[in-house]
Amino acid sequence: MSSISLFGSLSNVQSTTLTNASTQAPSQATTSTAATTTSQEDTVKLSETAQAKMLYKQGQSVSIIASTLGTTAKEINNDLGITLEKEIAQTLQSTLKG
After folding, report:
1. Both 2 and 22 in a single domain?
2. Do 69 and 85 reside in the same domain of the chain?
3. Contact predicate 94/26, CB 8 Å
4. Which residues form the domain of 21?
5. What is the pTM of this model?
6. Tens of pLDDT, residues 27-67
């Protein structure tokens, strides 16, 4: 199963801390500055279903999603709640409107 990671930035917190550190005693400022220069990343691991839903909302096709996640189109259809009957009904509606 593959995963998608989301990364956050703490730049606003770091700049505030650095500003506050400049008004402190030199030994305290050095400690605060050193602590804020280390990069921290927030990581979220999404389930296959959540990844499939996210990619589908972004406009990816079921076959592309299946290929990306290393699974079958049938499994992605199940994850998305897509049934053959729904697809046929949507195709018929769009054909009749067009």
Report:
1. yes
2. yes
3. no
4. 1-45
5. 0.48
6. 554 555 555 566 788 999 999 999 999 999 999 999 999 99
